[in-house]
Amino acid sequence: MSNETPSSRYLCQRCGNCCRWPGDVRITDAEVKKIAGFLGIREPDFIEGYTRLNSNRTGLSIIDRPGGAGECIFLNGVNECLIQPVKPLQCSGFPNQWRFPGWRQICEAIEDVS
Ligand code: SF4
């Protein structure tokens, strides 16, 4: 039986399922700068090619792969993040800093009992 509580911590298993979850992947101005630098492109080119307005039109989100099934454009194969060292806080914070309803059905992270 699981002893999971709202404050439990989880260890990501790199299944990549959250990278295929539909919805906004919000990025801040600082993250735009960092990701564009990592990709070696100009910020306006990154914004033009890899972002869209998020659903409540308050900022930018990373786009899905064109023609894909809702996966992030930076997901390569099953579970490789092409911007892993500079991925947005929304990505690195899941599932320990925030969770969405039903997250346990898609996320393979295991509870950290150490
Ligand atoms: S769904 Fe959970 S275990 Fe899978 S990559 Fe995302 S955070 Fe890690």
Short description:
The chain has helices at residues 29-39, 43-50, 89-92, 103-106, and strands spanning 10-11, 26-27, 51-53, 60-62, 75-76, 80-81, 110-111. The chain is an alpha+beta fold. Strands 2-4-3 form a 3-stranded antiparallel sheet.
Write the layout of secondary structure elements.
Layout: E1 10-11, E2 26-27, H1 29-39, H2 43-50, E3 51-53, E4 60-62, E5 75-76, E6 80-81, H3 89-92, H4 103-106, E7 110-111
Antiparallel strand pairs: 1-7, 2-4, 3-4, 5-6
Helix pairs in contact: 1-2
The structure holds iron/sulfur cluster.
The site of iron/sulfur cluster (SF4) has 13 residues, from loops.
How many domain regions?
Answer: 1
Provide the residue-averaged pLDDT.
94
- What proportion of the residues form beta strands (DSSP E)? 5-15%
What's the total helix number? Answer: 4
- Extract low-pLDDT stretches: none
- Return the structural class: alpha+beta
> Radius of gyration in whole Å, from Cα?
15 Å
Give me the side-by-side strand order of the main sheet: 2-4-3
Number of strands: 7
Order of helices and strands: EEHHEEEEHHE
Distance between the termini: 17 Å
Q: In this structure, how is the largest beta sheet organized?
A: 3 strands, antiparallel
